[in-house]
Amino acid sequence: MMKILLLEDDKILCESLREFLELEGYCVDVAHRGPEVFDLTFKKKYDLYILDVNVPEVDGFDVLASLKEAGDETPAIYITALTDLSSISRGFELGAEDYVKKPFDPEELVIRIKSKYRQDDTLLYYKDLCYNPITRVLQKESQTIGLGEVQQNIFHELMVHQNKIVDSYILMDFLENPSANALRVNLAKLKNKLDIEIKNIRGQGYMIENI
């Protein structure tokens, strides 16, 4: 079940959206002020953020900026009455996936969510691992596993190209100090942490082979 965090200070609208999204099968937590988002994301991992911009204390723009600075790559959709191009541009620059202008029909929001995040169609499997390449959520036996940014990027590249060789130089680009040895160290950590096989194709690169 997709887990959504909804930030909206209009409590009536917030509750209405939550009920509508839950009827569509989503699990929804709500926040009415910016700081509440930080408290909730500290305790739980979400698949999608839906953020109003004009909310108390910390606005939706700064909320997403802070989350991104902390390494949170969860997709986000803004819902806002702001229509000026500078606001829309800022939202996308901060990493938002989409923008829905108020007022809107809740069904429009659901359509956008479904069109962008078709989880059932995109889930990747390897042994007892389940990986969503859109939200980058990795689970093992229903338990979410966190990876550091470098190993997350390496794992993502290998998983979305299962049974194909990924060039070593592509993987090394994810390293702060690229080198063959540093890459091997990170691959070894991934193998040990996730109990997976990563094949070294000498002179070419690495691959996850899913038979």
Write up this protein.
The protein has 2 domains: about 120 residues, Rossmann fold; about 90 residues, Arc Repressor Mutant, subunit A (Orthogonal Bundle), CATH 1.10.10.10. The radius of gyration is 19 Å and the shape is elongated. The mean pLDDT is about 85. About 40% of the residues lie in helices and about 20% in strands. With about 210 residues, it is of the alpha/beta class. The longest helix has 15 residues. β11 and β12 form a beta hairpin. The strands form 3 sheets. It has a 5-stranded parallel beta sheet with strand order 2-1-3-4-5, with helices on both faces. It contains 9 helices and 12 strands.
CATH architecture of the largest domain: 3-Layer(aba) Sandwich
Domains counted in the coordinates: how many?
2
Mean pLDDT: 87
The major beta sheet can be summarized as: 5 strands, parallel
- Radius of gyration over all CA atoms, rounded: 19 Å
Shape type: elongated
Considering the chains and any ligands shown, give keywords for the structure.
211 residues, alpha/beta, Rossmann fold, Arc Repressor Mutant, subunit A, 2 domains, five-stranded parallel β-sheet, four-stranded antiparallel β-sheet, 12 strands
